[in-house]
Design goal:
The protein is α/β, with parallel strands linked by helices. It is built from eight helices and eight strands; from the N terminus they run βββαβαβαααβαβαβα.
């Protein structure tokens, strides 16, 4: 069973458009999608995480349609945005408590897991590490990365462990570093 299924999934609102994308991401797979622009990459990542709803086509996360069952989708897919987050060291525990509440995870367990992840991501700048840690708190089966920093590919893939990873990119080199580039996308990029 695929954790992420996109069938001619496209988004269109005003001048913003993305897709269409057709792909499957199965448990444990790492799939990278190179696209033509940062805006398209961001929108496709948001669709893959169930945050932005497809205007046409279909997106299923697990067996759930984000247009109808967005809460169920968010329990499966953890989203890591492209933008670094600005959380001061002293606010980190509050950030993790907030993320734990979103995922309905015990705060003490979340803080302990976050400490382990921070140790494993010690070489990654905290502005990039914190969103990844926040996304992993709920133990998602699928991690969706919007244009992750190429320099951090080894660390990101190491902490995602055996989870499925779907990432969007604006160049083929970054896509190759994060997973199996999706063939259809390679012809579009």
């Amino acid at each position: 069973m695929a954790l992420l299924r996109m069938r001619n999934a496209a988004f269109s609102l005003g001048t913003c458009s993305a897709g269409p994308v057709t792909l499957d991401v199965r448990p444990g797979e790492r799939t990278a999608l190179p696209v033509g622009s940062p805006q398209e990459a961001a929108v496709i990542a948001l669709m893959a995480a169930g945050i932005a709803k497809a205007s046409s086509g279909c997106v299923l996360i697990g067996d759930y349609d984000p247009r109808v069952q967005s809460v169920n989708c968010k329990r499966i897919a953890g989203f890591v945005p492209h933008e670094p987050v600005s959380v001061r060291e002293r606010d980190f525990a509050g950030y993790i408590a907030y993320r734990a509440a979103l995922w309905k995870v015990n705060t003490r367990n979340a803080l302990a897991y976050a400490a382990v992840l921070r140790e494993r991501l010690a070489d990654m700048h905290e502005a990039f590490a914190y969103p990844l840690i926040g996304a992993l708190i709920g133990m998602p089966k699928l991690v969706v990365l919007d244009r992750p920093a190429l320099a951090y590919a080894p660390q990101i893939l190491a902490v995602t462990e055996t989870r499925a990873v779907f990432s969007t990119h604006t160049n083929a080199a970054a896509a190759h570093a994060f997973g199996r580039p999706h063939a259809l996308a390679m012809t579009r990029a």
